[in-house]
Amino acid sequence: MEKSIWKEITHNLIPNISFNLSTFGKSQQECLEIDIKYLLIVAHKFKSEPTIELNWLENLSAYVLNNEIIFTYFIRSWTTQNTIIMRVRLPFKKANLVKIPSVTSVWLMANLFEEEISDLMGVVFYNNENVKTVNSIKRSTLPDTITGYPLLK
Known about the structure:
Blueprint: H1 5-13, E1 19-24, E2 29-34, H2 39-48, E3 56-65, E4 68-76, E5 83-91, E6 99-101, H3 110-121, E7 124-126
């Protein structure tokens, strides 16, 4: 999809949303940065809108940088070939758990990514029945012998 078209599409689909557009990595692909309160709204709209039909979550990553935890969603359409990168930034303090809504209701594939991020970073994805709670005995992707969250230094 042509650069800067995402600004128009996003405003047309969700008129009152506030967001920033930036570029991502060496590819300089457009990246939509949204507030956490719009995450599920934008995800549902992007998947259901026939002109863009972003129906596949290719990847979901999370990392900590400068007291923020940054969630990056790589989303694609198999039918229209559109792609977008979407980001959500949240304040991060090691002592506090980060909570973010699950997007499994939009993209079922998110379950695998959310389980891994939960195990490695202690993030709580609410509204995802499959992700184990922080206090659960059994972890999804790590052996029981691992304590703490390996990606939080």
